[in-house]
Amino acid sequence: MAVCLTGLILFMGFIIWDLGKKSKAGKLGIFVLFLALGFGVTGFIFKTVLVEFLLKK
């Protein structure tokens, strides 16, 4: 499961990068895309780590 989720997250990163390239967003635009759309992935990872940490106590 961890391998599949890691692959999915990496694929989502590729999709964000490709979206920025095809829209000719430039370096700042791609950074903003990764920042905005990456918050969802970061929140998912943080939630998973937090739940695992809280359940171990």
What order do the helices and strands come in, and which of them pair?
Blueprint: H1 2-22, H2 26-55
Count of helices? 2
Q: How big a fraction of the residues is strand?
A: under 5%
- Tell me, briefly, the overall form: elongated
Order of helix and strand elements from N to C terminus: HH
Rounded radius of gyration (Å): 14 Å
Structural class based on helices, strands and sheet pairing = mainly alpha
Q: Roughly how much helix do the residues carry, as a percent range? A: over 70%
What are the salient characteristics of this protein?
mainly alpha, 57 residues
Q: Can you tell me about this structure?
A:
It is a single chain. With 57 residues, the protein is mostly helical. 89% of the residues lie in helices and 0% in strands. It contains two helices and no strands. The protein has helices at residues 2-22, 26-55. The two termini are 23 Å apart. The relative contact order is 0.11.
Task: Tell me briefly what this model is.
With 57 residues, the protein is mostly helical. It has helices spanning 2-22, 26-55. It is elongated.
